[in-house]
């Protein structure tokens, strides 16, 4: 029997519906053998740190945690005091999808939201929002502490290196650190065609939530500080936040296998390639309109009622939202490290059949 016990033929609901990559499965099995010291005092955690430094071509401080929410929240808590402001996009995962965990970990804090098309805010809008630094110093105001961007964004787009640099320059000019929510960092690096270093610290990112779970791990993320001095109290925050794993070697084993042989970049490239194939196909289907540029492994579209019905009838799973009076719906499709031609082909065939059915 297949491990997939539900009846969906194709599942594009998210990238975390994909299983785990074989290299990571093998690494966990290997790590299960024998004895190792707890709480990160093990060889695999040390190896992960070395691999991360090599991958990003710089000295850094890297801390494994088990969820992206923890990575973001603990990272932001190291950057912001209880009276601190984090600037982020209004659709940011830290705003919409983390149940106020960042504010919880910060012990207060305040998210201040910026708008902007395709999931991005601009350096100019950030600058306008920050205004005159001397005005912010008044005791009555929460104090600017950090800026956070998601890469990929929540609309599946990638900030360009120039856009990141411009945001970082504004943040730094105001004495703020730049955090990047990299739940889909691998997909972004692939989209930009640059090095991991260029996609992060070389463009001004100070702290990265480095995601692996959505891209082939079981459950592993890391908080990476490119200025190790910023990491001064994270070990206490991580422990207090319940993310200092006693059997840390199992998180680190996943992260080592993820980074080794550039496996993570290969996984991300596969996911992005599958999304591109889907997007290219969908552009030619009547009744399908793409809503945002497809830079990585996520597609947002509006599809007609007949295409939606045909896809559901063909066993295609995805999130649908915003049904219009004509029955059309918005959908999000997310491809994964293990999405294959069989899945994208089946989906496109069903969509085309739905379009044809509507025309008949
Ligand atoms: C999935 C995701 C996360 C992490 O979510 P968890 O469910 O806490 O692991 C963080 N940021 C973005 C943009 C995401 O899509």
Descriptive account of the structure:
One of its GO terms (molecular function) is threonine aldolase activity. It holds the Pfam family Beta_elim_lyase. It is an enzyme of class 4 (lyase). The chain has 360 residues and is α/β, with parallel strands linked by helices. The protein has two domains: 7-18 and 268-359, Aspartate Aminotransferase, domain 1; 22-263, Type I PLP-dependent aspartate aminotransferase-like (Major domain) (Aspartate Aminotransferase, domain 2), CATH 3.40.640. It contains 14 helices and 13 strands. Strand 5 (143-150), helix 8 and strand 6 (177-182) form a beta-alpha-beta unit. Helix 12 runs parallel beside helix 14 and helix 13 packs across helix 14 (341-359). It is globular, with a radius of gyration of 21 Å. The two termini are 39 Å apart. The mean pLDDT is 96. Pyridoxal-5'-phosphate (PLP) binds at residues 67-69, 72, 93, 150, 154, 181, 183, 213-214.
What share of the residues does DSSP label as strand, in percent?
15-25%
- Describe the global form: globular
How do the strands of the widest beta sheet line up side by side? Answer: 2-8-7-6-5-3-4
Our count of domains comes out at 2
Q: If you consult CATH, what is the topology of the largest domain?
A: Aspartate Aminotransferase, domain 2
The number of distinct β-strands equals: 13
Helix segment tally: 14
Largest sheet: 7 strands, mixed
Q: Can you name the CATH architecture of the largest domain?
A: 3-Layer(aba) Sandwich
Q: Detail the poorly predicted runs.
A: none
Helix content: 40-55%
CATH class of the largest domain: Alpha Beta
Bound molecules: pyridoxal-5'-phosphate
Helix/strand-derived category reads alpha/beta
Order of helices and strands: EHHEHEHHEHHEHEHEEHHHEEHEEEH
> N-to-C terminal Cα separation, in Å?
39 Å
Query: Any idea what the CATH superfamily of the largest domain is called?
Result: Type I PLP-dependent aspartate aminotransferase-like (Major domain)
